[in-house]
Write a structure and sequence with these properties.
The chain is an alpha+beta fold and about 400 residues long. Helices cover about 40% and strands about 25% of the residues. It folds into 2 domains: about 140 residues, no CATH class; about 230 residues, no CATH class. Helix 5 runs antiparallel to helix 6.
């Protein structure tokens, strides 16, 4: 059953908070503006770096032999990434020869969710109703239920045992006759389940410890199947406090790389503008495919950050001018009308400002497109500031004059 908490904020406090929000809005506006400028420069520099790399790389035809002539060159190559390193999970006493060994842990817990709804009251007060609901979920760390709002759910969480997640990577991963650096190694994603081989004595000690805590010696709390160690009574019917540990490994696989040769290993390529580049993709991929994907990713990130920047600019403006709406909260109807107007102005001003910043950034980095964006921004300003005024005059002139009073 949902638990509700009702709070009331006085008009004076709301006005005070709104004036305090001016500072936060200003900071957000400045940060969003900086984000928009930085993003345009980042995208242009990345494009130039990729174009430079695309024109500079050479094919490494045979990665199985060290070629001194390729030392210092940016190369594209395909080979099997493999290792002879043995990785061991010290706590559970087993391991595997693999590029990576991952131990991921989940806990079955009560989780608190909240949803708030606020209503303005005559006189400027705000009444906020917060509804708290609770669900059982698998989460990555234990949840402190002592902080739950509903007393009925406080201190209902517990865990049968605490196990930390762990991720190990091999130090020596070969690529033909070469060795992959750490960054390239961590890009390998050929993940498979690990066949568990946990010693029975470890499982017994774990089970005995839990049994002593639960005071139910006859029950088995530890279950091992596939690549999962389940701590709980019945794996098919989880209870609060159960723990699920899953092991996976990264196995040898064919990969394609673009990176700069550095003796018998690789390092990131540094372009003339200072941007660095190296990449590893799974399977056999042509250099043209890899560069096309990198250009596409750069464009996607450009637009994601653009949209985020515009939204943050608008949010910043609303934070700066939100006090105007709050001042009229004594009469909610009037405040809603003013709030709608402030919102429209903030949206228009935010979009125009964002276009100007993007255009100036493009003028700085690429003048032709920047001038085009400035033209669009100027047109929006003209439509909003002047065309709207002309439309208002036109509507006024069409209003019929009131009849003169009879003598």
């Amino acid at each position: 059953m949902a638990f509700q908490e009702v709070t009331t904020t006085s008009y004076g406090k709301r006005v005070g908070n709104s004036f305090m929000g001016i500072g936060g809005g200003l900071v957000l506006f400045i940060a969003a503006t900086a984000l928009l400028w930085w993003n345009e420069g980042r995208a242009v520099k990345t494009t130039k770096m990729l174009n430079e790399a695309q024109g500079a790389y050479v094919e490494m035809e045979n990665p199985s032999k060290i070629d001194p002539a390729l030392d210092g060159e940016l190369v594209h190559a395909t080979a099997v990434a493999t290792t002879q390193d043995s990785l061991v999970d010290a706590r559970f006493g087993f391991g595997a020869t693999a590029i990576a060994l991952n131990r991921d842990v989940e806990y079955y817990q009560w989780v608190e969710h909240e949803e708030s709804q606020s209503d303005d009251k005559l006189g400027g007060k705000e009444v906020t109703t917060t509804t708290y609901t609770y669900t059982k979920e698998w989460v990555s760390s234990p949840v402190q239920s002592s902080q739950f709002k509903d007393p009925e759910y406080q201190n209902k969480n517990m865990v049968l045992t605490v196990v930390e997640s762990e991720h190990q990577w091999a130090k020596n991963v070969t690529f033909g006759a070469y060795k992959l650096n750490e960054s390239l190694t961590h890009s390998i994603s050929s993940t498979e389940p690990v066949e568990l081989a946990i010693d029975e004595s470890i499982l017994k000690d774990l089970n005995d410890g839990i049994s002593r805590i639960q005071k139910k010696d006859s029950l088995s709390y530890v279950h091992q199947f596939a690549n999962v160690l389940y701590v709980g009574r019945v794996p098919s019917s989880p209870e609060v406090g159960d723990v699920r540990v899953t092991w996976t490994k990264v196995v040898p696989a064919k990969v394609s790389i673009i990176s700069q040769v550095d003796g018998d290993t690789f390092k990131p390529y540094t372009a003339k503008n200072g941007k660095t580049f190296q990449t590893l993709v799974m399977g056999k991929k042509d250099a043209s495919e890899i560069f096309e994907s990198e250009h596409s990713s750069n464009k996607v990130l450009l637009w994601v950050l653009r949209i985020l920047g515009v939204i943050l600019v608008i949010a910043g403006l609303k934070g700066i001018f939100g006090f105007l709406e709050t001042l009229l909260k004594v009469v909610p109807f009037l405040a809603n009308i003013l709030g709608w107007g402030v919102s429209v102005v903030c949206w228009v001003a935010g979009i125009v400002w964002s276009l100007i910043i993007i255009a100036l950034a493009w003028i700085f980095y690429r003048p032709v497109l920047g001038i085009g964006l400035l033209t669009v921004a100027a047109f929006l300003i003209w439509v909003f500031a002047f065309k709207g005024k002309d439309k208002l005059k036109e509507m006024t002139s069409k209003t019929p004059n009131a009849p003169a009073p009879e003598a």
